[in-house]
Write a structure and sequence with these properties.
The complex is a heterodimer of chains A (730) and B (227). Chain A is α+β, with helices and mostly antiparallel strands and 730 residues long. Helix content of chain A is 35%, strand content 23%. Chain B is 22% helix and 26% strand. Chain B is globular, with a radius of gyration of 16 Å. Classes of the chains: A alpha+beta (730), B alpha/beta (227).
Chain lengths: 730, 227
């Protein structure tokens, strides 16, 4: 095939990008080379629109062993143990083929983790679907959940937490973000930097097929009417092979024969070989005839761009080939020496004895395009003035029931019951709490993880929204008794070529950078997914934050279920009654304007640290952070989980009851305190200048809000748990 | 007491079982599916997981692996063989237990705590357990037990039903049947009651920090009765 500008454009490259390629090579690339450039230079692999802004994120901290730039981030959790973790998107494939798209998303992120030598110990996910009225939503949800379960369950890794939301902006472009945590000894972390010349380059895992060719390029373009035709670019997952690959890799990693290892994810053999060579500042030559293929007559172009799953590339110490091969033979996996490293600083490919590609590595990596795209700053919307008449005809219990059973608040048990969340025998806090918690096997330590996003807030004001999610993640970790350590982010946005979408990206990143820097909660890994749009309509900006925290002694873990009658309930943090962009305003008053709640980072940090202190002193019995839906939704969930009631007190300051109960002010927690510890708790709160109000007391039955508003726990449970199951079975 | 846990390609509860057996005093060995001989064992456990990816039919390929010949011989002379979840599926596929395990009624994987009523306390597996109902964890996609009418009669006549899904009080009804299993069957024995296949995972309930401790009761009783 003759390469020209049109062919380059068909590969998703821009005119000036093609021109730059010809200049860098000082010739016209052949088709294989063009394919390689298009794969390395697309948005998904090159971060060309985002790099400029991501470099401002805080990525360092005393617990950070490895920040962004490797397969995943690594943090120190003491005693030579480290946690490797990352979140990644698989949005486009999941919309086209929900089961395989979601399954391979889970498979891909787990590979990123065990590539670094870590055994995966927990999975999480953040999934977002269109309106519940939209005709595709039900099937997409079912397919995605089956896919996530199908892969994770077979791997034997527990899925411990997640988040699901519905919003019409995802009608044509759902989001599937998967996160994995792995455990590794600090002296056994493996990196992707190749070193040494003449070292064998090894291919292991599944055979290469024609599936997924140009998957990364697909993920870098907007959808149009012909998306169905893109089905063949979705990869097909085989969790059984990945389980074997995991065990075989960990077995090989127990020795010291690996110099560098990289999984073949997006852009397959192309990006894995080039990244290892680039990081090691050396060259790599590959004989494509040696690559194990599952289909006949595959061309160099197809072999290089295939995104077949469950494959790894390894640079091995010379002379260790036989020993390594034995391990992969034992696990029935392909093993092939396909090339070697050299001094040339080029990627050189041979096929049927011909040299079919020769590209200097730096042209693909360092010289890849970087854009400082135009973007539009968002204004803070004006506060809406809700007229008091709007509350007049509302009955509190009706509103509570409506919100509690609404798609974004209701129990997601139908989803997480399909995920094995107890395999490995260390899950000490299951899905449905503030964060999932797993013990570090055989120790007293545990790690907590949660995944959060607040697209509504980010859409209303990206800067505030960006800050808010980091704070929400921080609060969720605190609420189970974990000290927050670091985050990973998955940045899901519309087209970077649209100034408003780009502005949302820039300001969300700025917000999350500010918050993570202030809280000492650095970003150690992540991924950017642009072009989440159909035709010209982008999704609401949806950065997902995966937070990880440490519980030094798992006996200090705390849960949200109310424990004992007559205990006192306190609300930490000031309740001003911010209703704009709240669930109450949007779902009950149908009011979609106004600013999201303000974030006060000082209060956020101070309140969180003080709550953690109270947990470690064992002064409190349960904790839950106050988020979507406000105080009353948070308290209802505590009642539901503990099968206990509560009696509310009238607030001791002037505030409208709806604003008090449903306002979404930030930085708040509800605490359950024993009477005997109440004075201690109050004095610690005062010492630390933490604002608190007395919310009420725990009782045996019924949630009593005032003398006109009361609901039984059974009714609360029914409201909360039936919607999703009914929706999915109709 | 010596035990052996067989690891098949795709087993994923093998480590959990190893941890549980050791915790309650077994000297456990991990045995690779490709081995020919079983080490000296008082108990052989086929663990949960997705042997061979559950491709073809759950448990069917594993039932043909090399080590299974030894397991079958061991069982035929009265050796104690316990299959949990995928291990149960392997036992029915290898013909050591009657019946089959179909996909769950609602075609969904189920992971949750379930109440399990012990039907027969005469075997070594449940002999001295005081409770009649255990709370154990289930996690499976194919736990819907089925067999022919004739087989069911035989199973019933020989008192081979080991466990039922029930409610907290021990009522066995459709409402507390999680997967559509025939008669709410959660576990069965062979005629001689040296082989037990069960869907629930006792190895996930051996620590107060986990979902419960009724698994501990199961393992403590097991080792005491094998002595």
């Amino acid at each position: 095939m003759i390469v020209n500008e049109k062919v380059a454009l068909d590969h998703g490259l821009k005119k000036d990008e093609y021109k730059k390629i010809c200049e860098l090579l000082k010739r016209i690339p052949n088709i294989t080379e063009l394919g390689i450039f298009s794969a390395m230079w697309n948005e998904h692999c090159s971060y060309k629109s985002s790099r400029f802004h991501l470099k401002n994120l805080p990525t360092k901290g005393k617990n950070v062993i490895q920040g962004p730039g490797e397969n995943a981030g690594v943090i120190d959790i003491g005693d030579d143990d480290a946690i490797v973790f990352k979140i990644e998107s698989h949005n486009h494939p999941s919309f086209i083929e929900p089961y395989q798209g979601a399954a391979t998303g889970v498979g891909g992120i787990m590979r990123d983790i065990f590539t670094m030598g870590a055994r995966p110990i927990a999975n999480l996910n953040s999934i977002h679907f269109g309106s519940t009225q939209h005709k595709k939503t039900k099937n997409l949800l079912r397919g995605v959940v089956l896919g996530i379960g199908g892969y994770g369950n077979c791997m034997g890794v527990p899925t411990i937490a997640g988040q699901t939301s519905f919003d019409e902006s995802y009608n044509g472009n759902i989001l599937v973000n998967a996160m994995t945590l792995g455990l590794v000894k600090q002296n056994k972390i493996f990196y992707s930097k190749a070193a040494g010349f003449g070292k064998p380059v090894i291919y292991v895992g599944s055979k290469t097929g024609r599936d997924g060719i140009h998957g990364a390029s697909m993920a870098s373009a907007a959808f149009d009417d012909k998306i169905e035709e893109k089905k063949p670019t979705v990869q097909v997952g085989d969790p059984f092979t990945e389980k074997l690959l995991l065990e075989a890799c960990l077995e090989l990693m127990a020795g010291d024969s690996i110099i560098a290892i990289q999984d073949m994810g997006a852009a397959g053999l192309t990006s894995s070989s080039i990244e290892m060579a680039s990081k090691g500042n050396l060259g790599i030559e590959i004989n494509l005839n040696k690559v194990p293929c599952r289909e006949s007559k595959m061309s160099p172009y197809e072999i290089m761009l295939s995104e077949s799953q469950e494959r790894m590339l390894i640079v091995l110490e010379s002379g260790k080939e036989e020993m390594a091969k034995k391990i992969f033979d034992k696990w029935n996996l392909d093993f092939a020496v396909i090339g070697k490293t050299n001094k040339n600083k080029k990627i050189e490919l041979y096929f049927n004895e011909d040299k079919v590609a020769s590209i200097p590595i730096n042209t693909l990596v360092e010289n890849s395009p970087m854009y400082n795209r135009k973007w539009k700053k968002a204004k803070l919307p004006k506060k809406i003035k809700i007229k008091k008449e709007q509350f007049k005809n509302l009955k509190i219990i009706n509103v509570l029931n409506k919100i509690l059973s609404s798609p974004n608040i209701c129990s997601k048990e139908w989803i997480w019951q399909q995920y094995d969340h107890t395999v490995m025998g260390d899950t000490i806090q299951k899905p449905g709490g503030d964060a999932g918690v797993v013990r570090i096997h055989g120790t007293d330590k545990a790690v907590a993880a949660s995944v959060d996003s607040s697209a509504i807030y980010c859409w209303a004001h990206p800067l505030s929204g960006g800050k808010q999610i980091v704070c929400e993640s921080w609060r969720n970790l605190i609420s189970v008794g974990a000290k927050p350590i670091a985050i990973t982010n998955c940045l899901n946005f519309g087209s970077p070529e649209n100034e408003e979408n780009m502005g949302e990206f820039v300001e969300c990143v700025q917000g999350l950078g500010e918050a993570s820097s202030y809280l000492g909660f650095p970003v150690v890994s992540g991924n950017v997914s642009f072009y989440n749009q159909t035709k010209d309509i982008g999704i609401k900006p949806t950065p997902s934050i995966g937070g990880v925290g440490l519980i030094k002694n798992y006996k200090n873990m705390i849960t949200m279920d109310l424990k004992e009658t007559n205990n006192i309930l306190l609300v930490i943090g000031k309740t001003e009654g911010h209703l704009d962009q709240s669930l109450f305003a949007r779902d009950i008053l149908n009011e979609k304007n106004g600013p999201p709640p303000e974030i006060n980072l000082f209060n956020e940090k101070n309140n969180g640290e003080t709550v953690l202190k109270l947990i470690y002193e064992k002064y409190i019995r349960s904790v839950h952070d106050v988020s979507l839906g406000g105080i009353i939704i948070a308290l209802s969930k505590m009642c539901i989980k503990g099968k206990k009631g509560a009696i509310l007190k009238k607030p001791n300051y002037l505030i409208n009851q709806f604003e008090y109960l449903f306002g979404e002010d930030q930085g708040r927690y509800i605490l359950e305190v024993d009477n005997k510890n109440l004075q201690n708790v109050i004095s610690i709160l005062k010492e630390n200048s933490v604002h608190f109000d007395e919310l009420g007391t725990v009782c045996d039955e019924d949630l009593t809000i005032d003398n006109k508003s009361k609901i039984s726990i059974d009714d609360l449970v029914k409201s909360h748990t039936t919607w999703l199951t009914n929706y999915m079975s109709n | 007491m010596n035990s052996s846990v067989i690891t098949f390609p795709g087993s994923n509860c093998d480590r959990d079982m190893d941890v549980a057996l050791k915790k309650f005093g077994f000297k456990n060995k991990m045995v690779w599916h490709d081995d020919i001989e079983l080490p000296k064992s008082d108990l052989v456990v086929l663990p949960g997981g997705f042997s061979y990816g559950d491709y073809l039919r759950c448990g069917s390929m594993a039932s043909k692996s090399k080590i299974m010949k030894s397991v079958i011989n061991f069982a035929k002379v009265g050796g104690k063989v316990l299959g949990i979840c995928n291990g149960f599926q392997i036992l029915v596929e290898s013909g050591l237990l009657p019946g089959v395990l179909l996909r769950n009624k609602y075609l969904e994987f189920i992971c949750k705590n379930a109440f399990i009523k012990i039907n027969d306390k005469k075997s070594h597996y449940f002999k001295d357990i005081k409770k009649n109902i255990l709370e154990l964890h289930i996690a499976h996609n194919e736990g819907n037990y089925f067999c022919s009418k004739e087989q069911l009669k035989e199973i019933d006549d020989n008192n081979q039903i080991a466990l039922f899904y029930s409610d907290r009080e021990g009522n066995v009804s459709d409402e507390n049947n999680p997967n559509g299993s025939l008669k709410n069957i959660a576990g069965i024995f062979n005629k001689e009651k040296n082989i037990l296949g069960m869907m629930p995972h006792p190895e996930r309930m051996i620590d107060p920090a986990l979902s419960g401790e009724d698994g501990s009761i199961f393992f403590e009783n097991l080792i005491n009765n094998l002595k």
